């Protein structure tokens, strides 16, 4: 019962900003990730290696539009909106 209560507390509105994932992968970057992921998986099948499963990572990040490595290094390959440019001018 206790783990369920803790999980509900973590997912409450108070902690919503901790789970807020903003898109940080642009359209071109998403397409490149998808193609690269398919190539890696195809290479894994060709060489009969489990290393091809790594190709799922770029496919998933491209599909979701969010990359955890980009979030850590504060990289955004998406198109900047006018609102975000206005905020940048004030900083």
Detail the topology: elements first, then pairings:
Blueprint: H1 2-10, H2 27-46, H3 56-64, H4 68-72, H5 82-90
In short, what is this structure?
By secondary structure, the chain is mainly α. The chain contains five helices and no strands. It has a domain at 21-79.
Provide a descriptive summary of the structure in words.
- This protein has five helices and no strands.
- It is mainly alpha-helical.
- It has a domain at 21-79.
- Helix 2 (27-46) packs antiparallel against helix 3.
- It is elongated.
- Residues 1-19 have low confidence and may be disordered.
Rg over CA atoms: 18 Å
Low-confidence stretches: 1-19
Note the total helix count: 5
Structural class: mainly alpha
The CA-CA distance between the termini, in Å, is 46 Å
* Average predicted local confidence, pLDDT: 78
Number of strands: 0
Q: How would you characterize the largest beta sheet?
A: none
The fraction of residues in strands falls at under 5%
Secondary-structure element pattern, one letter each: HHHHH
Helicity, as a percent range: 55-70%
Shape: elongated
């Amino acid at each position: 019962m206790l783990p369920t209560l803790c999980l509900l507390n973590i997912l409450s509105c108070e902690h919503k900003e901790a789970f807020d994932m903003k898109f940080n992968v642009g359209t071109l970057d998403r397409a490149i990730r998808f193609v690269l992921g398919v190539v890696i998986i195809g290479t894994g099948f060709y060489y009969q290696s489990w290393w091809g499963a790594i190709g799922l990572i770029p496919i998933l990040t491209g599909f979701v539009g969010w990359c955890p490595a980009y979030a850590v290094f504060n990289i955004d390959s998406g198109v900047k909106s006018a609102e975000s440019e206005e905020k940048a001018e004030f900083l």
